[in-house]
Amino acid sequence: MSLNGLSSLNASYITNISNKTPENIQVSNPGTQEKKDGNNKLKKAIIGLGIAGAAIALGAGVYYFSKGKNKGVPKISPASKPVPAPAQTPAATPKAASKPVSNPDSLISQAPSSVCASVSNVSKRFDVEKLGNGRIKATKISENAQHTPVELPEYLYHFTSQDSMDKIISSGTLKVSKNEQLKGLYLLDSKNFLSHYGNTNINGQNKDLLTAIFRQANQNNQGGLFLDQRLAVIKIPTEDLLQNGKLRIRTQEDFFSFTSILKDIENKTGKKFSLRGLQKDIKREELEKLVLSNGLMEKSEFDKFMRDMKIKIHHGYSLSGAASRNLENTHSIEYIFNHDIKLSDFPNIEIRKIKGLDYYTEGQVSPDKAKAIFEGTFTPLLQYKTK
Question: Minimal CB count within 10 Å: which of 67, 235, 281, 324?
Fold first, then answer.
């Protein structure tokens, strides 16, 4: 298993910076179509078949007399091929086009968070300009709307154990997490990680989430000493992610804030609710009844609480929504990619093994050692050695 976001962190991995001691923190339906008159459809179909048959016969005759009867009738390209005449073998009915992907620049992603599929080759979705400073400018391509460009880091990173990395190489797939509050593959921006994760404000206290990330990743190594810090970091071009799926953004501050409120409700009522469980209507209704009957919130306050949870936790912010709120410069953020990554479709992925962080002896990962992780030499995917 690989590390995917902090929401899976054991409480003991998060350290209160003020005293360096572990803290116990929990970490459309489409519209119906009107029915058409059956007889009108049949008449139109018969007329269409007759016209199509005449067109084929005429085309074949012209070609026959102009090119010679031994050449045969030329093949008609699929793009211009008419409906065949009844005497010929009918052409296969083309499949209906897929429903267009909803605009990823809207505040809330419309795709259900439960839907995850492997990445496949798709047409270009973004125009991307490299800015030369470790950043890119990405503009959504659309015929029907004009989108505001968003600036993003040129690369995103995923930390995992070396044992998990070996399994990823063996399977050929970097899989999404199915155990988090927001399903997906969790990724970090190096600048935001170094600037904010080591000093994240959680409910009025500064916490070291940077060290917690490495501690949790190391737990997935099998066997050996607990102090044997064998980690790996995966470097993925952000452009490749944009062209092959959707990126959403969530903040650690939001996650811990909602978790804290639910913990307070549990302490007062004895009833426990998880953020993930509250994606279900039945659980939301149960929580509403409990909160209102115990006078813990007013109805309007509870409605806002659930509305904010849907946006900030269950869906996550769109790229434009996060940019408009300047989350990158003010919060500890994580990027969530909505697909498994098939390694053969991402040839530009690079990997680096990490050793010697010494957070067990020093209590935390020093900023210099964390920075060196991203500045070191990465190995192209195809050259990575599992052992």
Answer: 281
